[in-house]
Write a structure and sequence with these properties.
Rossmann fold; isomerase; UDP-N-acetylglucosamine 2-epimerase activity; 16 helices; WecB-like; 2 domains; 361 residues; EC 5.1.3.14; seven-stranded parallel β-sheet; alpha/beta; binds uridine-diphosphate-N-acetylglucosamine; six-stranded parallel β-sheet; UDP_GlcNAc_Epimerase_2_dom; binds uridine-5'-diphosphate; globular
């Protein structure tokens, strides 16, 4: 087995989480390989993150692309098996909860390849979300479990995972945010989107439960129109919901500004200057916590409860949304405590643990 550490990246949130881990491992002199599964492939969903976050060019792109849950996961499984046979790694690092993560974990486990999971132990306890299934299975198969939040350790212990495998390390998504903070220019973002001097809300929406069915999309659009009656709303729209939300009349309001998905720096600049965020994203719940921007999450649950207890996040329904946005505008920025170890040092902690673990094998 070679001494190369292989990182498996597939979708937008993976890129943001992997950048600080790859950087920290490089600083310790490790040989690394980056596999892009190709789950996300548009320039705005993939390439822009490699450029802006200084990620190394992928050594290989499996070109998996879009598909049903089964075909996408199966294509990752087959592609990753070939990759691990051709380039046996000393350790594979997996990120988050996307289909690329679970496909690669299954391929690696069946070949006896050691596996590490960054963002282990988060649980929404909602198996209607593909991500919850991906998280649970991945955590069962990994040898090293890197946790962003203390309650994750308890979830993993209850699922029978050994204490020695678990490490509370902080949050690499926050590392990326801290490392780029001085590049987030709220005034430039306002100017770029013609937002003037007034208040504005940023919305991001892509969960199947919110955007896949025309009926749910129509309810969501009604709620966003209620918000737009009070304040400008800018939506960097994920490709997933584009057709249903547009068909449901999303653009029938002058104060709703729909734009293409943004690069990381442009997106976080916009978030930094917003009065509030409306989202169903996992990462955005965390980023708004650190930036102290009020976050209203359009979901019945979250695998990231720490963003509610130590953060600006609140779960809301479509019906509650407009009133919650107005209240957030009145209340202003979150001023409470932040989650432990969200200090920008998760990448170096992970790199040190991996180094010790590999040396002991
Ligand atoms: C995936 C993840 C989700 C994550 C999200 C981040 C799973 C099960 N879901 O959801 O957890 O929050 O990424 O953004 O892994 N598409 C494009 N261009 C692209 C990529 C996708 O147009 O570059 C469109 C395609 O129509 C595709 C749809 O978006 O069918 C959904 O893409 P997919 O990767 O299957 O799931 P996401 O909704 O992006
Ligand atoms: N993001 C971005 N541009 C956008 C929307 C999101 O750069 O237009 C970033 C942001 O940092 C976010 C991350 O991409 O946390 C992951 O986003 P997404 O909501 O797609 O995935 P999730 O975290 O829900 O899995």
């Amino acid at each position: 087995m070679s001494a190369t550490i292989t990182h498996v990246l597939g979708a937008r949130p993976n890129f943001v989480k992997a950048a600080p881990v790859i950087r920290a491992l490089a600083a310790l002199g490790h040989s690394q390989r980056v596999v892009h599964t190709g789950q996300h492939y548009d320039e705005r969903m993939s390439d822009v993150f490699f450029v802006q976050l200084g990620l190394p060019e992928p050594d290989i792109n499996l070109g998996v692309g879009s598909g049903t849950q089964a075909t996408q996961t199966a294509d990752v499984l087959v592609g990753m098996e070939r990759e691990f046979l051709d380039n046996p790694p000393s350790l594979v690092v997996l990120y988050g909860d996307v289909n690329s993560t679970v496909g690669a974990s299954l391929a690696g486990a069946k070949l006896g390849v050691p596996l590490a999971h960054v963002e282990a132990g988060l649980r929404s306890f909602d198996n209607t979300m593909p991500e919850e299934i991906n998280r649970r299975l991945t955590d069962q198969l990994c040898d090293l479990l890197f946790c962003t939040s203390p309650e994750a350790l308890g979830h993993l212990a209850r699922e029978g995972r050994p204490d020695a495998a678990m490490h509370l390390v902080g949050n690499p998504m926050i590392d990326t945010l801290v490392a780029n903070l001085d590049k987030f220019d709220a005034a430039a973002a306002r100017a770029a989107h013609g937002l003037g001097d007034g208040r504005y809300v940023v919305a991001t929406l892509h969960r199947p439960a919110n955007v896949d069915s025309p009926a749910r999309a129509a309810e969501l659009v009604r709620a966003l129109h209620e918000v737009a009656a009070e304040v400008d709303v800018i939506i960097p729209l994920h490709p997933r919901g584009r057709a249903t939300l547009s068909a449901a009349g999303l653009l029938d309001s002058e104060r709703i500004h729909v734009v293409e998905p943004l690069g990381y720096i442009e997106f976080m600049s916009l978030v930094r200057g917003a009065t509030a965020i409306v989202t169903d994203s996992g990462g955005v719940q965390e980023e708004t916590t650190l930036l102290r921007v009020p976050c209203l999450t359009l979901r019945p649950n979250t695998e990231r409860p720490i963003t509610i207890t130590s953060g600006s996040n609140r779960l809301v329904t479509n019906e509650e949304l407009a009133a919650a946005v107005l209240k957030a505008c009145d209340d202003g920025p979150y001023a409470g405590e932040l989650p432990p170890l969200w200090d920008g040092q998760a990448g170096p902690r992970i790199a040190r643990i991996i180094t010790t673990w590999l040396a002991a094998r």
